[in-house]
Amino acid sequence: MQLRGCGTALVTPFHQDGSLDEQALGNLVAWQIESGIDFLVPCGTTGETPTLSHDEWLRVIDVTIEATAGRVPIVAGATSNSTHDAVAKAKEAAERPGVDAILTASPYYNKPTQEGQFQHFKAIAEAVSKPVILYNVPGRTAANIEPSTIARLSEVANIAGVKEASGNLTQIAEICAAARPGLDFRGF
Questions:
Q1: How crowded is residue 137: how many other Cβ atoms within 10 Å of its Cβ?
Q2: Which of 73, 75, 104, 109 has its CA 20 to 30 A from that of 36?
């Protein structure tokens, strides 16, 4: 799968009592599609995923699938600072009919080494059959995925792309030069 165009990292709407506002989420998805968005990303960091319970996380993905009704691809966020939990979340999201790819960020808080990040992402990619997109957002995770690590990860069969949000233009150029040809790359 190759993602093209513009994708929206969806917010997660809530009611005043803190419960998930499924109607507002469905309306947001419909509006995004009607406005011409090319793909949707539920449960990224924009969707406040680290604060969602497991059931809320899964429900956001399911509501997005239902409201999308196959009209655009869905890239479901599945991040955890525990490799075991990240693998489990990625597997659970990937099993959902309607999820086309998995987006997963570096383990937050732990500040893993480059080798630790390599092993973390490799374990996720090997556990699922859907394409995996790495999310490098060091401002949120406190761990940068360096270009040499992304180059190594680009050789893992199921890793399809990287959402690069370091804001470092030199690093972005280094990733483009180092990663295997054909790796889908999004710089933000």
A1: 22
A2: 104
Q: Is 48 left (phi over 0), alpha (psi -120 to 50) or beta?
A: left
Instruction: Return the number of other C-beta atoms located less than 10 Å from residue 105's C-beta.
Output: 28
Measured from the Cβ of residue 14, the count of other Cβ atoms closer than 10 Å reads 15
Neighbours of 102 (CB within 10 A): 28
| 8-43 pLDDT tens trace | 999 999 999 999 999 999 999 999 999 999 999 999
Pairing relationship of beta strands 39-41 and 101-105 according to DSSP bridges: unpaired
Using a cut of 0.70, tell me whether the model's pTM lies above it.
Answer: yes
pLDDT higher for 185 or 141? Answer: 141
Q: For 36, which DSSP code?
A: T
Tokens describing residue 129: 């059959």
DSSP 8-state class, residue 158: T
Q: List the chain domain ranges.
A: 7-187
Task: Tell me what pLDDT residue 180 has.
Answer: 79
Instruction: Provide CATH code, domain 7-187.
Output: 3.20.20.70
List, by residue number, the catalytic residues: 135, 163
